[in-house]
């Protein structure tokens, strides 16, 4: 031994020569199994506090289309999910005669919806049986749903990351990698597919959201009313700053042109086409963004609809009384809010769905009612 140094005692010969093929690996296996059990138990416990959230995605809509024959197709972002509720109502009120299929591309934009339409939806629309007849012949209406964000783009912005995340197939991913190599954009496909495998795990699905932490905090030490209000105002200011970006990116010609092409596609198919602006939560708009983001967007979209000659439904504020309590966050309705909006639309601007009315593809109806 070197003076002042620490030395481990000599091991017995049989321990020193022990192979990891024996008890050593069994010990590692026990540790790993125990760790996995603890993580699984923790995940199950946390799921009771903050369950994973499941929402309808492009893939869900396409899976439904495989065995459905809708009469109305709806394209939009997450707001298109309102039409899942409307679908249930329409089926009940028409004894199944009218069927609505919504295809929601989360955080999408007009160019994204156009891609989904061309690459994922239209092949199902045009699919034929052995006799050459369409497998799903009942489609007669197209609805495009939008908010100001859908026309937002700044030259030089990266491509929409939610296309590879939520709309691509493996073939789309492989083709993009072959053309451009593996990059940040197409890597979204791989990342999302991996997360999909673990979506039932709140520890995985909550990464970056901190909903578990907030739920636990509410259980252990709930915020005071004053603290909750401060938190709400902080988040509101953050959301309002997002809308302020619309003064820079709003009504980009590239996105507006994509909206026009989607409407034209519906007309060329002979469908009854409706262009709808979705309700906004009033509190999210300042006087500045209302006048310099929302009003210009409404005018631009109305102009697109009128030039194209399609039904235009502006439900931004004229929406049957949708207000702050009807929203679960700054952008999405509560379950009751979806019911409220769907009921109002079917009783008014979308009454044509229930009565089976189909307008001429080139009939202007700016009011949103029946031509």
Strand content: 5-15%
Average pLDDT score: 87
* Strand segment count: 5
The H-and-E topology, N to C, reads as: HHHEHEHEHHHHHHHHEHEHH
- Output the radius of gyration: 27 Å
Discrete helix count: 16
Low-confidence sequence ranges: 362-371
Q: What's the overall geometry?
A: globular
Could you tell me how far the N terminus lies from the C terminus, measured between alpha carbons in angstroms? 99 Å
Instruction: Determine the structural class based on helices, strands and strand pairing.
Output: alpha/beta
Quaternary structure: single chain
Strand order of the largest sheet: 2-1-3-4-5
Largest sheet, strands/sense/barrel: 5 strands, parallel
Helix content: 40-55%
Reconstruct the topology from this structure.
Blueprint: H1 13-16, H2 20-49, H3 58-67, E1 72-76, H4 82-93, E2 100-104, H5 110-125, E3 141-146, H6 162-166, H7 170-180, H8 184-197, H9 202-205, H10 211-220, H11 225-244, H12 246-249, H13 253-268, E4 272-277, H14 287-308, E5 311-314, H15 335-347, H16 351-355
Helix pairs in contact: 3-5, 4-15, 5-13, 7-8, 13-14
Brief overview:
It is built from 16 helices and five strands. It is an alpha/beta fold.
Q: Can you put this structure into words, describing what you see?
A:
The protein is globular. The protein starts with 12 loop residues before the first helix and ends in a 16-residue tail after the last helix. The protein is built from 16 helices and five strands. The protein has a five-stranded parallel beta sheet with strand order 2-1-3-4-5, with helices on both faces. Strand 1 (72-76), helix 4 and strand 2 form a beta-alpha-beta unit. Helix 3 runs parallel beside helix 5 and helix 5 (110-125) runs parallel beside helix 13. Mean pLDDT is 87; it is low at 362-371. The protein is α/β, with parallel strands linked by helices and 371 residues long.
